[in-house]
Amino acid sequence: PVLVMDFGAQYAQLIARRVREAQVYSEVVPSTSTADELLAKNPAAIILSGGPSSVYAEGAPGMDSKLVEAGVPILGICYGHQLLAKTLGGVVEPTGVREFGRTDVRTIGEGGVLHAGLPAHQTAWMSHNDSVTEAPAGSVVTASSDGAAVAGFEDVERRFAGVQYHPEVAHSPHGQEVLRRFLHDIAGIRPQWTTSSIVDDQVRRIAEQIGDGRAICGLSGGVDSAVAGALVQRAIGDRLTCVFVDHGLLRAGERTQVERDFVSATGVNLVTVDARERFLDALAGVTDPEEKRKIIGREFIRVFEQAERDLKAQGDYKFLVQGTLYPDVVESGGGEGTANIKSHHNVGGLPDDLQFELVEPLRLLFKDEVRRVGLELGLPATIVGRQPFPGPGLGIRIIGEVNQQSLEILRTADAIAREELTAAGLDQEIWQCPVVLLADVRSVGVQGDGRTYGHPIVLRPVSSEDAMTADWTRLPYEVLERISTRITNEVPEVNRVVLDVTSKPPGTIEWE
Ligand code: XMP
Predict the structure, then answer these.
(1) Centre of ligand 1 from the C-alpha of residue 249, in Å
(2) Does 500 contact ligand 1 (Cβ within 6 A)?
(3) DSSP 103-123
(4) pLDDT tens digits for 247-283?
(5) Would the ipTM clear 0.90, i.e. be above it?
(6) pTM for the model
(7) Nearest-CA neighbor of 228 among 354, 44, 99, 358?
(8) Which atom of ligand 1 is nearest to the CA of 507?
(9) For ligand 1, atom 22, which residue shows the shortest CA distance?
């Protein structure tokens, strides 16, 4: 793998994703890893990420000089650029000129391998206080900016390079090309990380792990559990059984998507448990968000456990498939071990005492890779392109009591909003668009000749990279108008549609 050493900025995972976009497998490793630990992974190259420290600060994370003697190609980015330069004998100084944001980077000389043939002036994203003022002996300076005399250097012989700017961010338009050149041209790595190779590799690993055993996969209707299930199905065929719990808090068409589209694409064994009544009974009279979540989580576990006992009575199901993704693995310490808190997230919080061995075929993959794998496995775009949807479903999008009637109102309004957003081609632009029913609120309206006293529907379109932060999406007025008109016409209980224009923070994406 290419190892991305994480020096504590938010960029390490992004770098790893970009490396994989260049079809090279990469992993994020903590900057506290020792040289021996890193070399034991037999890295094809090492990338030193950016970070908030100054290389001179007390306790600043460093790098073992053993790494530069090991013959492994190294690329330093931002802080990593300074650290590499310093380790190789260059000079880093606090010049008093800081650069932040879009910066003009000039090619020096021929530009070396990384910058040759690119525009002599290119825009790149910078964020630094200190600068490399003297490149290490044996290397050439390839780029420079007003605030960084050495904005790029390389030593092609020893396969070392550094750039002060952030090639991984979209604000550096040539950044991906620079990364690609480092990986392919300087480090000499062959691009082999392709979707079909991921599928082959995972199918082989799963088959090895499960042997002739049987596995259960809980489907949530979301992308991750569907792709995980499809991969395992590819590996062990009808020794996999998928369990889908219909808790009645699903959106319009979701059950059909699973029962018809997923099954016809994969041929998987599917057990649907209809638990709608049970959930409605348990939620009767409850309005507190936390209480709702607890009830839904608890009921989910009970239903799943029952399904699991029923299955186990028929055969020996030893394995449980989970759709854990790579960012969860990195965030929970990145180790090889399984079973962290988040790994149970996808099936709605399964209890720890379930006696299963976990199968986690997505634990090396980023979300975009999961989607591509899904398409490669023949899953329909309706499943693979799905936006995130919370496990507690519509239950936490009804402010007030969840009952048959409020669910029906919200389901209809939500279907209209989704239909119009899709028709306007906005699905890619929007991270997700919760539609929320304020069942506890009423306002006066007028419709036809009469006064109405109905409920508001809130539209909450957000743009985001990872749901940790989000901005409200500036939807075109015409689309908003169509949604509003249709909802107020087609859902009699609703006489008002309002737009949530709050970023996260301070607002969360969901209302409960
Ligand atoms: P918030 O509302 O915290 O949501 O900004 C962040 C992201 O998480 C989703 N979400 C959930 N997903 N179970 C889930 O599986 C939950 O209980 C849950 N609550 C929020 C939300 O849709 C958004 O994508």
Answers:
(1) 15
(2) no
(3) EEEEE-TT-HHHHTTS-SEEE
(4) 999 999 999 999 999 999 999 999 999 999 999 999 9
(5) yes
(6) 0.86
(7) 358
(8) 5
(9) 390
